[in-house]
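Submission sheet (multi-component)
Chains listed below:
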Amino acid sequence: MLAYIIRRLVYGVITLLALSMIVFSLLQMTGGGPLDRLKLNPRMGPYIDTLTELWGLDQPAWRQYLTWLKNYTTPETIALQNVLPVIAIGAAIGLTVLMAKFMKSQWQGLLVVGVWVLALWIAISNTTIKFNWGTSFSGAGDVWNLVFSRAGATFRLGLTALTLALIIGVPLGIYQAVRQYSFFDQLGTVGAFFAFSTPIFIIGIGLQIVLALYLERWTGVKIFYVTGMNSPGYSDLSAIGKLVDTVQHLVLPAVSIALISLAGYARFQRSSMLEVLHSDYLRTAKAKGLPRRKVIVKHALRNAMIPVVTLVSLDLAFMIGGAIITESIFGWPGIGRLYILAITTIDYPLVMAIVMVIGMGLVLMNIIADILYGVLDPRVRYD
Amino acid sequence: MTDPDPGISRHAVDLAEAEGLSIEPVTQWDLFSKRLRRHKFAMISTFFLIFLVTVVLAAPAMQNAGWIDDPTKNLFDDNERIMRNIPPRASSENVFYKKVIDGREVLLEASPTALIMGTDTLGRSVFTRVIYGGRASLIVGLVAGFLVASLGTIVGSLAGFYPGGVDQSLMRFTDLVLGLPLLPVAIVVGRILPEIEFLPAFIRQGPFGIAMLLGLLSWGGLARIVRAEFLSLREKEFVEAARAAGAGDSRIVFRHILPNAMSPIIVQTTLVVGAAIVIEAALSFLGFGVKPPTPTWGAMVSQGGRQAVRGFWWEMVFSGTALVSTVLAINFLGDGLRDALDPTQTIERK
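Outcome: structure written.
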């Protein structure tokens, strides 16, 4: 198991290296270079050469890449605020070794990942750490600070969307399977097809126009907001007012990301549940006289949930794409919108930093999902 | 009385017919088309897609015949004012567009269909642009689908047929391609593409570049499926029999394994075509796709959405409907094909 995790991490690093090389060489192919925009400004004239030298743009491309790679991966400043990080990492190493030696349970892999996530989180939150991810070419400041000031907004949006998709999609699929061929099941199937086939930007703009603009026009009450994460007067509101304001802003973008994934989960959960419902051991459970409720909840559900776990991880890439589009529709101040701005101005350091953050998220989520799959389904073996 | 088939006794034929059974040979194709025809949505989708392809391919001819207008030309009224954001209406009387002939600007009469879906914010016929927008989607779907089908099949079958080093290295490469975040990378390429000087213009500007990009990025899933099919089919008795009879590798792959692996390839390719059309639309929506003034549904939804906020709903609604119904039809067709190509499925007699 540990060997498997380590091997996956190594493959992950190789994937990330390939990703960085691909994006870096693509950025090199731009016609004018990143300083084109600055050159348009007559007052920038004397500084162009200085900037070219400062940002290393006069170097050959491969040297620029190596410099970027070195700066990206080595911490610029690192200082411990207290001894907690040392204790956490030490405990994590100790626990990992102990578990590798003595634990034979299927939960081992998940526990190892959990321990490390917790330890790294404690370590990072008690350390002052900063990487030199460069300075934005378009004058937006230090890239590390910029990315992390925007990350919270994207997390809020993504987590809400994922939760919505799971708590609605999974029960929907189960209900459809239990009542197969009922009117509700047929409706759900057709609805899922429509949701799959509707691009996320049409859902987003549709919700924005109908539920935010027209609804306000008809009712005269502002129920949902069209853009932004908070109202301008947010800090003056009471606690409840703050919550209501947040929800009013959050619902529409989260729903537009969640809708397509929700349809996917429902569909997947339905087919996996149907497969289990028609299996031999379920017939046995029914034959020995267990109540229907118990058969479905205890026997069917546990096994039918397994495939959905893998779908969630594969879906993450899709959700990131969805977040990029949704954030630019709803003016959500997250990483996705920052990415669009960075690409438009060909801001090398910012584009590279965001692509790599997205890539790292994908690699980690895929590993966690594969491990989780093995934990939930003891038939899966890693070697 | 002459016996229709001397090989079968009249008595047996009578018996069979009395029981409602047919002695006609049933080919795979018969089974396939019978199953597909039962899937109503798939049939409707097939007709819709045939209609769409015909209309889209015939668009330039229709423009030459004067049935539709030039998608990039502004329309004017008889006082030579540009007709911006005109709602849909039945007749195009007194509507013109400007054209330069022999160095002189002349007003030509617009086609009767010019205002059937209204005009956009630059005074162009939405109807014409919806039809022309289908060309970009169609090219992207077909080119990306072709690339994915060929790359995925080649990589998957090589990996599945030659275990060991070839399999390992090809699948690691596939994992790598699958690990790339599709939309962020596609956005970078879409942004850079027009500025790459060594590429020919039709790749830099038009939908071909986007189509090739999407094809090159999304063959990984199909390669995995084909490899799994090959791994299981390779061990089957009929492959062993073919090998015992002296068949070479290429004969086994092309005559014995590949025909049996066709159905997942067809189904997956259909789904990829739908996905590619959606991603191209998303890229065009964000402004990193096909460059204006070439109309695309994604760009029309983007521009139409801004107008819809002001109450001019038609551009967004019509282009959005075109996009959604095309993708919906492709997905329904894929679903129908999946059912129809599954040989384990039986047709229950009703």
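Remark: The radius of gyration of chain A is 25 Å.
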